[in-house]
Amino acid sequence: MSNIPTVDGIPVVRLTASEQTNLRDADTKTLDTAHDAIGPAPSRLWLRMSAIWWRSLQYIGMSLHFRAPVRPCSPNFTKTIPSTISKSKGEFTLQFYTPAGYETASKTGERFPAVVNFHGGGFTLGSGTDDARFARFVLEQCNAVFISVDYRLSPEKPYPVAVDDAADALLYLIRFAPDLHIDPFKLATSGFSAGGNLAITSTLRLADHIKSLDPSHQRVPEHRIRAIATWYPVTDYTKARAAKRAASVRPDQTLPATLTSLFDASYLRPGSLKLNSPYLSPSKASDEELAAAIPEMVIFYTCEWDMLLQEGEEFAKRLGREPINRDVRYKMIPGVPHAWDKSPDPIRVAQNSEELYQECCGYLKEAFERV
User: Fold this and answer.
1) Residue 1's pLDDT is what?
2) What is the CATH number of domain 34-369?
3) pLDDT by residue (tens digit) across 171-216?
4) What is the per-residue pLDDT for 339?
5) What is the share, in percent, of the chain residues with pLDDT greater than 70?
6) Is the peptide bond before 155 cis (omega within 30 degrees of 0)?
7) In the prediction, which pLDDT does 11 show?
8) CA nearest neighbour of 155 among 69, 88, 246
9) Does the pLDDT at position 18 exceed 80?
10) What pairing do the DSSP bridges indicate for beta strands 6-7 and 10-11?
């Protein structure tokens, strides 16, 4: 496996010696607002130009990633749907990957479990097809429909648009489950990095949205989310990035400040935005909020060399304790950086990635099969 850290297929540079030295003085105070995290906001034009540059690099990296055998599958069809929850009106796309037997479901009446997936990329990069390798295991092992969400990206659409789109995707699939041959009582969310955050926060946002509706006018059909599968998610924006790097066992393998600064400046708007919002930092949600929205099973993966390891591990443990008391299947993957499974190696897939995808899908299948 390559020693070069990557983010969603993009090779990133190591820290310089001076940068590693500076980490020893990292500020560990709690951040209150977006301004505390990013300082004076860069111009939106600069952010857009930077995002376009990094998106082009990511496209090259993911193209190489997809060339490694076995080649990942392609979506069977897509649906572009209107946003209904977000104040920023628009559209976004759902990528549908379907299992064997789906084509004849209209005749057989079969209904399939569904895994609703959110890609990574710091809420700034990426697309709904990035997790196609994981999709293959969901189709084959869970016999489930895999729906990957092309939520709207920052800086064009900063927080909370991505969270709103994520909840909107769930709402759409619940409402149109019969037409899509989906069993609304066998749903799960999944996601990687920023998408891992959305796999969690989408359930919180959806629960709150449903509570806000007048049931006499906008009844949401009965449904059940059985599990969350979250891979190396960001769960706490109130901790400074420098402090997170300093806490890593391999700071040189963490994502560079150039990239994380772009992510944060793009997504965290406006400067007065409170970073302890549960839709942004799910670890800051109350026990009551988590107990009301988090499904019975939570499948949680972190990476040993990731700056997000500590916060992810702490949050996973909290979800498994009273009073939340969820069935948490937690694993720290040793000796790998953030998004190691998206390595841009055209010769072979990232070490242990397929074994862990298979393990995760075994847990999802177990969740779907529970009474």
Assistant:
1) 43
2) 3.40.50.1820
3) 999 999 999 999 999 999 999 999 999 999 999 999 999 999 987 7
4) 97
5) 92
6) yes
7) 60
8) 88
9) no
10) antiparallel
Q: What average pLDDT does range 65-82 have in this prediction?
A: 96
Q: How many CB atoms lie within 10 A of CB 46?
A: 13
Type of residue numbered 81: I
Report the C-alpha gap between 223 and 237 in whole angstroms.
31
Question: Is beta strand 225-231 parallel, antiparallel or unpaired with respect to 297-303?
Answer: parallel
Give dist(CA 75, CA 198) in Å, integer.
Answer: 21
Closest of 112, 114, 111, 76 to residue 95, by C-alpha: 76
Question: Do 274 and 155 form a contact (C-beta atoms < 8 A)?
Answer: no
pLDDT-derived band at 3, boundaries 50, 70, 90:
low
Give buried/exposed letters for 138-163 (b at 16+ CB in 10 A, else e): bbebbbbbbbbbbbbbbbebbbbbbb
Sign of CA dihedral 3, 5, 11, 13: negative
Q: Indicate whether 229 pLDDT > 80.
A: yes
Q: How far apart are CA 12 and CA 263, in angstroms?
A: 14
